[in-house]
Amino acid sequence: MLRFAPIFIALIYGYAAFRFSMWRTARELDSKSSDLNDPVLNVHLADLARALDIPKIRVQIYEIDLINGLAASDGRIFITRGFYKKFQDGAITGAELASVIAHELGHVALGHSRRRMIGFAGQNAIRAAIMLMVPPVLRMVVPHLVSAAMSILGAKLSRNDEFEADAYASALLIKANIGTAPQIDLFHKLGALTGQKPTDDNAKSSLPAWLMTHPATKDRIKAIRSNEAKWVQSK
Predict the structure, then answer these.
(1) Residues near 17 by Cβ (< 8 Å), separated by ≥ 6?
(2) Burial 187-213 (b: 16+ CB within 10 A, else e)
(3) Calpha distance 11→18 (Å, rounded)
(4) Considering only CA atoms, which of 110, 107, 37 is closest in space to residue 76?
(5) Would you give the DSSP letter of residue 210?
């Protein structure tokens, strides 16, 4: 039984480390966020809330300049100040920003934060188990190989989460009578908004596809259009 103690310790460590990370992130968000209250966006949020049959969707502005949306582990939805400023400047529309909020709602509804916590703890346990099985002579090399394999697996799971959240957002936007056009339009704009080359015009990423935590833009757009076509045909 003692032989497997490192695996149990790794599981406990993985869980504790993830919980600490969530706690630290929550404190950061609490100290740097305020409620979003915009008359244009409130209309779109009301449409999304009606589609979900809930009274209200609360969104907060996270006071950083990066362009991003995020779903906290406690279910709260955030839009960064940088993203909101792009809306205020007219670079993106209210419907496009609503598609980001719908995507983050997808992460919450589909339990992606919990899945990542389980995955992180599991990866630590796998590392510990492998180290128990390899001979001492290989223990200088194996950790690097295991870490590389875990990075590839983690990236794959993250890409799957993004596809799932995109699909959830598409379904919600359609039900809210907003449609998927703003979602797709925003993907076309993201490269210019973030100062990066778009990934849907044959531009190459600095990372191999199997190490990217987010799918290529062209693949996300293709999946959105494919899902919408299937849903329309099934009606």
Answers:
(1) 120
(2) beebbeeeeeebbbeeeeeeeeeeebe
(3) 11
(4) 107
(5) G
Per the structure block, which two tokens stand in for 70?
A: 């995020």
**Is the CB of residue 29 less than 8 Å from the CB of residue 78?**
yes
Say how many CA atoms lie within 13 Å of 88 toward its Cβ: 10
Within the chain, residue ranges assigned H as helices are 5-31, 39-52, 81-88, 94-109, 112-133, 142-175, 181-194, 217-234
**99 is written with which tokens?**
């598609």
Q: CB within 8 A of 235, min separation 6: which ones?
A: none
Both structure tokens of 45? 């949020």
φ, ψ of residue 134 in degrees (nearest 5): -85, 150
Tell me the mean pLDDT per 10 residues along the chain, length 235.
65 72 83 95 98 97 94 92 96 97 96 76 69 72 76 86 97 97 95 66 55 88 95 75
Q: Residue 200's pLDDT is what? A: 44
Which residue in the block uniquely carries the two structure tokens 């510990």?
Answer: 128
